[in-house]
Design goal:
Elements: E1 2-6, H1 13-19, E2 24-28, H2 34-40, E3 46-49, H3 57-61, E4 68-71, H4 81-87, E5 90-92, H5 99-114, H6 117-125, E6 144-148, H7 152-163, E7 167-171, H8 183-188, E8 192-195, H9 209-213, E9 219-223, H10 232-241, E10 244-249, E11 267-269, H11 278-295
Parallel strand pairs: 1-2, 1-3, 3-4, 4-5, 6-7, 6-8, 8-9, 9-10, 10-11
Length: 297
Amino acid sequence: MKKLVVAADIDESLDARARDDARFEIVRRPVRTEAELAAVVGDAHVLATRAYNRVTRRVLDAAPHLELIAQGTSGIDNVDLEAARERGIHVIHMPGVNANAVAELVLGFMISLTRTVPFYTREMVRGTFDRDDCATRHELRHFRVGIVGLGNVGTLVAKYASVFGMEVQAYDPYVTEARVPSLDALLATSDILTLHVPLTAETRKMIGAAEIAKLAKGSYLINASRGEVLDQSAAIAALRSGHLAGVALDVFDPEPPVEALPDDPRLILTPHIGGCSYEVKTTVGGQLFEKIAAFYR
């Protein structure tokens, strides 16, 4: 019998499926910190995690029987893959499972930024009902959106943006369908830049002060991929200076942020909720167990 330790908030459909399979004993031990995770994995053969679980070498060293890490999200940058390979521990994850949820939030960010929804909300709360300048805001079809990364999320963002009549362009050196030959070319021709790349050594801080400066004054910047992909301080500095007209961040480096974030109606902040929805949560458990069961066939 394989002991399956669920160390994250994964839908209980995972538990139900595991209990119906005599090959598995399931134990739910949700934790948050690296130390807590190391303390609960000692007898695990399978470890079910989410992106906030730091599966480090220390954690793996504390799990002598571990055979499989089953990540209930699309990204796996929280896992020390080199240490796992050294031990022969396999890693499975759920690419694309939350892509629609992220893409929808990104489109919501685009509308909120370009129609200055946070600004109007604040004005209304203060008792100001002023719509005299509303005709200076543009519909999405006015804007050119530049997508960095054409994976599962980036592809959906492109599809949905096209429905709104936006001019869509993308840069991804690993996808032949990408229509822009270089990142610099994308920066030079985008009114809205949105980031959808995994965190790798290549993508870490790929958008910094130099890249932001190549965007036209009055552009918008959205990051719903990983916080480490963007130099957050540079983005906020560009917002303060007026070079950027708006910024939306769903991800941060680190999470939660340790530095105070400005109170600015041009800045939209959400606590990494892009891939979190009822639809995602209620389907991941069962789908993840299917992958676990398939591994042991």
